[in-house]
Fold this protein.
Amino acid sequence: MKYLYYSLLLTLAAGCATSPERSAAPEVNWPDSWSANAKTDHIEAGWLADLNAPELEALIYEAMAHNADLQRVTATLGQSAAEARMAGADLMPSANLGLDGARQRISTFGPSATGGVVFENYNLGPNLSWELDLWGRLRDQTSAALARLEVTQAELQAAQLSLAARVAKAWFNLIEAEQQVAEAARTTAAYRENLKALESRFKRGLAEGLDLRRTRTLAANSEADLANREQALDAAKRDLEVLLGRYPEAGVLGRTLLPELPGPIPAGLPAELIQRRPDLIAAERRLAAADREFVASQKELLPQISLTASGGTSSQEFRNLLDSDFSVWSLAANLSQPIFQGGRIRANIDRSASRQEQARAAYRNAALQAYLEVETTLAAEAYLKNEYAHLQVAAEEANAAETQAWQRYRSGTTEFLNVLDSQRSAAAARSRLINLENALLQNRIDLYLALGGPFATES
């Protein structure tokens, strides 16, 4: 991956500067396990393998290669690497080659007055300067830059995880939309047949006008619902295509059925799994960078020692610049102690301290948010499974009631309105069951994302 190249390049360029040590965890009551317990004893390494959906894996890999937003984040990593290298360059001596030329005319007055004498002087040679980092200020600045690069690396990983989850969710939404269209089409076809049959009976005087009007109402509503479902399917296709980096032409296909929900969540998941989350890693690295920047700002109050050296040739004739007989050199040391800067240094220290507190508060908030997401998704799975179990029973009973209502209507023992009510209840139950199957999958992906992976697309 490109960001690994950036890391290696920066390591070589940073010299003796190193990334800051891991910051202390924020003041949160860290649990040993999750309060929302789950049942079972096994979990697979990656959620893509759990879902057993090769089509989804192919789509995620396509998104990783072509998604424009991920490419933007990757480019940001290159910028951060370059900025860190720029910070590390201050630890090294700087050198440049200079070529100077000057011409001067001097006129004198008095007894020995002259009309003017012209003097020429040319200098050629390298100039070197190096600030001795006695107090480690430059190393602290470079260390902070390394931490900021690690922030960008973590943000790239977070973007990859988020993109994988978004593709999976969009794909599940597409499948649900296709199933909802199929269910709506089935319901609409049934209402069309009902209406056709009832109009024939009404013409023969065997059906009431109220039944006919209610059937027309249901048939028209089902046609409207089918159009709405088709529009949702069209939008779901285009949403997924944009995530994949394709033109949104609504040409992508899903599959007939949603994949089965993976096995139950294991009991006793260790709470430290959350430490893999890239957003928490990024928050900690921001705090580490702020710590080093604060230390570096305090060291600006200390003296700075610089060494300068120059050499080369100097002559009044340009043609002699490459002649070693005209060589010159100089070596100097400079000690600078800040005395008065108009409050700039103190203000910078205060600013760094404020950024340090901001980073610490942000780290704590990120940790609390992460634990909220894990606890919420763990609890939600239990609620959703309970709802799904009851809804399965409701759908089975509604389908049976619809069948029985038709049998009784044909035998003349019930009214047609009872058949319509049974049809409507059965269709609603089946549609809701499809939606809940998707909700269970979506929540499981949210749980994997909340725990920070692992994902098959990680490097």
Summary: The beta strands are 94-108, 114-132, 304-315, 327-336.
